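Lab notebook, bench 4. The sequencing result for the construct came back, and we need a structural model before the next group meeting so we can plan mutations. Quick request posted to the team channel:

Model the 3D structure of this chain.
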Amino acid sequence: MKNILIQLPTFISGLFNSTHSIYFFFWLVLGLFLLMFELGHPGLFLFLSFCAGSIAAALAGLNGLSFVTQCKFFLIGTISAFFGLRRWLAREQRHGYRSNIYALQGKEGVVLSAIVATECGQVKVEGQIWRAQSMNHDAIPIDARVRVMAVKGTRLIVEKV
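Done. Here's the predicted structure in token form:
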């Protein structure tokens, strides 16, 4: 252990002075930049794939491989991450994960302003107030419990519980 600690400063100083370290830091900075770009644009996952490719190329650069080989690592790492993320997302979507307003389907709420036949009223679901319309065009009084059956635009289609 003591021998490793003695050699560590030599390794670190050699890392900063060698030619291949320029490529390592290039790929590392590019990977961090792409990661920050991904954080600013959530939902794409494309930049996350490029970030993984950059990290793979940085590791190749750290080992002193040529720039062409590092570019190959970047390409292979990016493609692998892209298809890996795609597969993971497909598996997550198969489990029926619903987000945004579609997650409201099946939730229960309380009527805040009466729903009359074909006119809209207001309901409170999950702490948010929404415009709502009766599914069967029935009148629903204030303080009645309702269940969200569908979402049409910014309106919830509800039925009395």
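The radius of gyration is 28 Å.
Will bring this to the meeting.
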